[in-house]
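pipeline/complex-builder :: batch 7 item 3
reading input block
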Amino acid sequence: MAEVRVGVLGGSGFTGGELLRLLALHPRVEVVFATSREYAGRPIHSAHPHLRGFYEGLRYSRIESVDLGSVDVLFNALPHGAGINYTSEAYDRGVTIVDLSADYRLKDASLYESVYGFKHPRPDLLEKAVYALPEIHGEELRGARLAAAPGCNATAAILAAAPLAASGLIDLDMGIVVDVKAGSSEGGSKPSKSNHHSLREGSARPYSPWGHRHAWEARQELSRLAGKPVKLSLVPHAVSMVRGAFASVHGWLVDGKGFNDVARAYASFYSGKRFVRVKPLAPGIPGDPPDVKNVIGSEFAEIGYSVEVEVGRVSGFAAIDNLVRGAAGQGVQAMNLMLGWPEGEGLMIPPLRP
Amino acid sequence: MAEVRVGVLGGSGFTGGELLRLLALHPRVEVVFATSREYAGRPIHSAHPHLRGFYEGLRYSRIESVDLGSVDVLFNALPHGAGINYTSEAYDRGVTIVDLSADYRLKDASLYESVYGFKHPRPDLLEKAVYALPEIHGEELRGARLAAAPGCNATAAILAAAPLAASGLIDLDMGIVVDVKAGSSEGGSKPSKSNHHSLREGSARPYSPWGHRHAWEARQELSRLAGKPVKLSLVPHAVSMVRGAFASVHGWLVDGKGFNDVARAYASFYSGKRFVRVKPLAPGIPGDPPDVKNVIGSEFAEIGYSVEVEVGRVSGFAAIDNLVRGAAGQGVQAMNLMLGWPEGEGLMIPPLRP
Amino acid sequence: MAEVRVGVLGGSGFTGGELLRLLALHPRVEVVFATSREYAGRPIHSAHPHLRGFYEGLRYSRIESVDLGSVDVLFNALPHGAGINYTSEAYDRGVTIVDLSADYRLKDASLYESVYGFKHPRPDLLEKAVYALPEIHGEELRGARLAAAPGCNATAAILAAAPLAASGLIDLDMGIVVDVKAGSSEGGSKPSKSNHHSLREGSARPYSPWGHRHAWEARQELSRLAGKPVKLSLVPHAVSMVRGAFASVHGWLVDGKGFNDVARAYASFYSGKRFVRVKPLAPGIPGDPPDVKNVIGSEFAEIGYSVEVEVGRVSGFAAIDNLVRGAAGQGVQAMNLMLGWPEGEGLMIPPLRP
Amino acid sequence: MAEVRVGVLGGSGFTGGELLRLLALHPRVEVVFATSREYAGRPIHSAHPHLRGFYEGLRYSRIESVDLGSVDVLFNALPHGAGINYTSEAYDRGVTIVDLSADYRLKDASLYESVYGFKHPRPDLLEKAVYALPEIHGEELRGARLAAAPGCNATAAILAAAPLAASGLIDLDMGIVVDVKAGSSEGGSKPSKSNHHSLREGSARPYSPWGHRHAWEARQELSRLAGKPVKLSLVPHAVSMVRGAFASVHGWLVDGKGFNDVARAYASFYSGKRFVRVKPLAPGIPGDPPDVKNVIGSEFAEIGYSVEVEVGRVSGFAAIDNLVRGAAGQGVQAMNLMLGWPEGEGLMIPPLRP
């Protein structure tokens, strides 16, 4: 018997589908509604043919027709801004909220206008929301009622850079550059010229190279860890894969520091974190590098680091599945923590490879 | 009637095959030999089934059995070090050399031991060799007899960064990070675990993240352009495509400089360069970004640039076909210039898209 | 100086782009107009970024505003039915027509209603049109003024099956099944759920499995070759590649016939055909099979055949590039033949591999 | 607490890795050994980096050093012939055997010499072995001690064709052609020219087109269902995906039969089969076709059927994940049945899409 009742806003896109896939494996929840404008009244497998045989009794609802108070936990998988009135109302009614959009990620309410183009209606909730990156805010999530799951590129960027920012090994005056390689599922399920198979397969190109929204989340979190403002830049690139976000965070070591210092920082920062795999990268150290191929379909993140001794460059790397660790899975992990369940409940699924 | 006789050392790998493809389209040359240990005695299409119908009279030779003096131009498509005795001998006998390996790229002979693991037998030739990036050394190539075609990652890095290095717009003390995304053909035709289709398709991962050989070429050339040593770091990544190298060069603007300065630098640097397409990237400027998809099979390079105003980050981008602009095609362009032919002879082939 | 002036109807889609790519390499033609509703008034590279640097003086025209009589040759790359009034008018005005749509492929006018959903306005032209598969109708094309370039799936099917149909080696009463594997570019450039990269990459699925339009062309041509009606079925499948159509034609040998008979039939049928590569497939015969990978970007077709002795099954295989041999390239080859030029003029381009 | 102890022969290849992935999700088993010559003495994640965090206490053993009698169930994931002495010995010692190779699939022992090149050492076990396709032999599996898991291509072929063979709707004298499209993981983890990413991505080509080993399994099973010998031919094709086997089974309807008869046959045959999704394909019937994309990572099979009315052709289609339903997953399902557990124990995992 499921312990909690769950509702999903925006259940027909890629993130919503991934959330439904993961919740089908979760032993303690029951999905009681999922909304979709396009698929309202139709079964879940009409949008997600791979889920045929799961959720067979459930049909998509219009968002206007669901009773927000009927659930214990509400996930929001709508685009930023589209669900904010529903999540804030549900919050006020006592529902636990896991928001997968950007609606509650930034602490500085004024940024919403410049970065996301809307004036935030509930700055009070920004203070209450926990930025749901479990390796950093795991403790705060316990008992919280509003989780803002990080963006996919931001998740990868922060995971790769956090030990560097927190340890003082990196020269923050030299700036940090985050170079992200992202799969086509990041752009969502709506067909467009940029995700046409013939034009995307075999492609490599930057997008939003003048500044990506997720940079603001990464600055917020890494500055907090560093204890001072971090000059961070983030450039995402569309590459040929379907799933995956790979962040390469490039910076420069402070004088006198080297690979061993970096190694200690990563080992220490991620000690005991079950969903993080730390991989040192240096000549002579055996083992394969972080690779999105190793984490597909799972909550695991592979983290690596390397130093180019000749010039003092240090890089942190993170490979994640953008739809799991970068969205739905991180939301489920947040729910587990918020409800006091084991962190990995329903998430100990080995990645799919090859 | 062909004007010059051409020989190819290492004709059965990916670079050799691409060279043969391009030379088949060149109106002024005749390939009189191509060497291969594995395919000796067999026709060209035994190694390159796509070339069936071309070179039908030609069979691979063992390198020991060819007469180096029988050709006007000798291309070397062997791995570094493997052909150096042959190319140096041929050079001494008066043959024009286009070397696609690293054997003559670095001006500092001492680097060969640390970077490539062999003591360079002919430092005298390093002085004579021209680093064959035509947009930079085009004039020197005219009449030269020894061209060292740049490495694929270095080509992309230098093309992306040259206007920044040459213009003084970038703060060199802040360092330059080159983040490269490379296709599987970069690794050559020999099967290995890292290029197994099941393990490479859908993958994104760094390689040689502690320092890549091509960084040395890029430092050499960009320092020359900048007039002082450039602190440059280069991190290549294996991504899911077959062809293509995409370099993202990240740096920081000197105070008071902005997008318009950068735009002028790129426009000026590449003015009149027929194989370069310059693409400004800023909100409100229409047009698609540089993409390897737009240059496949061709000598064209797409160059873009962008500025993240909030933090002062500037990026230069370059998309090339690693086998053409990053290897065989750049070699043919060098040959054209060395022999006094039109630069684009045999190379004005539109890219293949989609 | 170009010998003939060419116009292109429908120049902004994949087929139109491929035609423009090939015509840029053709030494005897000049493109004087290309039409596009979406891109009217804009340069060619606005639709085809890979063609930047080619056709720089040309901008797309609205179809209503072009003077059909201003060209010697008119190519039609519009969807079926959309260009028929223009091509028929131009034909009447003396222009040579190369139609890449289905508008003139079927000899039986009545089929247009059931198969393509429109009543053919000019049955008289169906008699005049030559079905432009050069290996079969090459002689008829010489001097003709209206060429109907075959469909991509039909081209592959007919090339694979023709020697079997013509030789009497196959038991026609047992039926012929054509199983096609097609790349995503077959579906055109318009974004849709079925060509979304995330949903197409890694996919394999049938489409129109109850009967595909191209089956009618294949029946028409193979029945003509066999001298009696051919019971042919055709099932296309969407697979994960971008370019390419691979047809596997499966039938059953008449009693007493075997591999050697089949080998003779293929060798004889394609003797002297420069754009066809014939590949026997049997244990002990060295060489690689027909592969779309070997013909990308080119007019070449790779044809193979095999016999499963235990049961008497015979298969013919054909690998083509759907946009070249299956569309634009075959149109150019038809033009060459119609104008009395060498068949391969502008088309002797080696395929791109890898 | 695990109920049964499991051993795995051949645990470092793709099939072995997939088996370990699935067994990690199975609540009733504990893997006590896994063998590998190449990785002996090293942890599981040395061969399967995606499994880091699972099986952390386990290291690969040499096959010679494991105690076959220490396990309740032994899986064999070695190539055909390589494990037969071990599995037969373990069987004799009372161990339950799930063999994923071809070693016990064929009932006719004499075929092993001609098809697999070795004389079968234990014809007595061929009689005892159950061909472990659960939709057909599910009842026989209950309580059995030796399961021969079907080959991947055979699984897809039989699932697609079984209702046609069993119902008498197909004219068996006209023959059946099975055309398979297979992903690169079918060829195993050993690097080779044929699975080099650069040469496989974007490729479509036949292999073993003169007769594939899996045809013999399909003939055996379909003939049994039909009650008479089935003239079946099978031609596999390598396509561009990583996972997946898609079988298209083409035949001809007996006179007077049509789509509705076929629909009834499929609905009836697969009624109540939880891992099969049946999809009618006809104009006007909504829904998406069977697609490997819909079953990746799972035991589900998508089955479709269509009729080309004009010629009487009927096709059955099956999409499976070759490593799950075509190998490791079907083995686990067999184990569940053999041990009297619920058929879907540990296997009710939703597929991964996109």
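note: Chain D has two domains: 4-128, 153-320.
queue -> next item
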